[in-house]
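Problem 3 from the worked examples.
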Amino acid sequence: MTESFSRIVAHNEELARDIVERASALGVTVSTAESLTAGLIASTIADIPGASAVLRGGAVTYCDEIKHSVLDVSRETLDRYTAVSFQTAREMASGSLRLFQSDIAVSATGYAGPGGGTDVDPAGTFYIGWACRTFDGDVPVADSTRCTFEGDRSYVRACAVAEALERIECILDSME
């Protein structure tokens, strides 16, 4: 596990370096909305020199009331689908896009373990959301995906950071 964890952390640093370089070249900004990762996505980007040209900010919204009040995740979404869902991940990313006026936003919500989780979403399950502005100024695009990894809490969180950074890379690919 330690070797795998070290590899994923190194991979995350490479992704962040590439994001800062490419987003800077494109004049694109990024923001985050984080529950499961508690700021690790933004921190990984901020560790890279030049990140200040790209990273607009990040919101750590660990509890439902903060997801609602800061990111405007609807109470109906939280009540009906829970904080760990496709819907909440999308709304978190959209909220970050609005809050920080960024071009791209990603979110992470889930169960890092060892406890928590449900039959449908056991520990190790998380959702990554993303939102981005369209070049023509139309309604921002938002979506989300579900991921499951086995491992300890740190490993699951590092995997969530990787998934979020890879999503930013995909969006940057579509912008080039």
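Problem 4, a separate protein:
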Amino acid sequence: MTGVPLTDGLAGVIQALAAVLRTAPDRIDPQQSFRTLGLDSIHTAELMAALNARFGIAVAADALYDHPTPAALARHVQAQSRPAPQAADQSPAQVREELRDRLAGIVGCDAERIDPEAPFHAFGLDSIRAAEFMAAINATYGLAERPVTLYDHPDLATMAAHITAVAYGAGTQTAPVRAEDALASPEMNQDEVGALLDAVRADMLTVDEAAALLAFRPA
């Protein structure tokens, strides 16, 4: 089994880049540098979040320094997407600890401070960080879960049980929880709404998933 074919990786990079830059994919030269194409630091963060979510990888934004063109980045995406050797089955407790370490790195706190039964929004996991967290989980366990999975499994304990069941077929999946309890999502501004619409156009979110994110408001 191989990872993402290079042609698919390049097409994905160009589509995501076009969405970020608000331009047509056929206007992007894959051999031009990202700087020449007009990519700034904000665009870079948006692009990498989109690619991580699309390909189930966890590549940092500074990868663009070493891979400064769409063609070079596509080769890097292809390499990162190659599936890791199949690991031995893990228990929900082991998965929970792995997820806790991943979450701590994303929200910037010590793993020991994360209560597995506390809701994700208690740690500041907004929709952007949720996409990053889910991409890291997908890369670790070879899954293709969407960020909205965190709405149904809104804390580490229930999320670990779900991932264990999906990845290893162990136990039963936890019952969905109300979306209102899942993530803290302050009222979206125009740029955030635009980013969601771009994600739908790039096939990184479904219309229903984007609608769920748009509709959610904290009580």
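Solution to problem 4. The radius of gyration is 17 Å. The mean pLDDT is 76.
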